[in-house]
Amino acid sequence: MIRYAIKEDAPRILQLIKDLAEYEKAPDDAVATLEQIEDSLFSPNPHAFCHVVEVDGTVIGISIWFLNYSTWLGKPGIYLEDLYVDPAHRGKGFGLSLLKELARICIERKYERLQWWVLDWNEPSIEFYKSLGAEAMDEWTVYRVSADALKKLAASS
C-alpha cells in the first residue's frame, strides 16, 4: 500500500534515510534528527513530502520529495530527494509504484517534470531509471556551497 506518510511514521522514515546513506557509502553524512524529520515533513508548512510503502503494517519504502520550479517552463515540478526500498523487499515493484505515484501527482497538478539525482556508480538504479524512459542530464554539473564555504559566502560583502 502506498500512502502519504504520517507523523507516526517519522522514526521509520529516519531509519530508512540512514539505511539509504549506508547503501550510498556515506553513513556519517546522514545527521538528520527525528525532530528535524518531523518538522520538515509534518509541520503546518512542510518543506518536503513523503510517501511510504507499507507491507503488513511495516513501512518498507519511502519517497521524499519537494517542489522545484522551471523558469523556462514557468511551472513547478517534483524533485525526488530520496527513493529507497528495504533490500528484503526489492524486486517486487515497490520502487516503481512510488515513482508512478509521483508521476500521477505531476500529471494531476500539471507539473512538467519529475527529476532526481543518482550516483554514477549505482548501475542497478541507473538501468531501472532508463527502463522507465528517464534521461541522464549529463551536460549539467551539480554545484554545492555548504558548511564553511556557505558561511563565508553569506558574510562576504
From TrEMBL:
One of its GO terms (molecular function) is N-acetyltransferase activity. SUPFAM superfamilies: Acyl-CoA N-acyltransferases (Nat) (SSF55729). CDD domains: NAT_SF. InterPro entries: Acyl_CoA_acyltransferase, Diverse_Substrate_AcTransf, GNAT_dom. Residues 1-155 form the N-acetyltransferase domain. Keywords: Acyltransferase, Transferase. PANTHER family: DIAMINE N-ACETYLTRANSFERASE, GH14572P-RELATED. This is Unannotated protein.
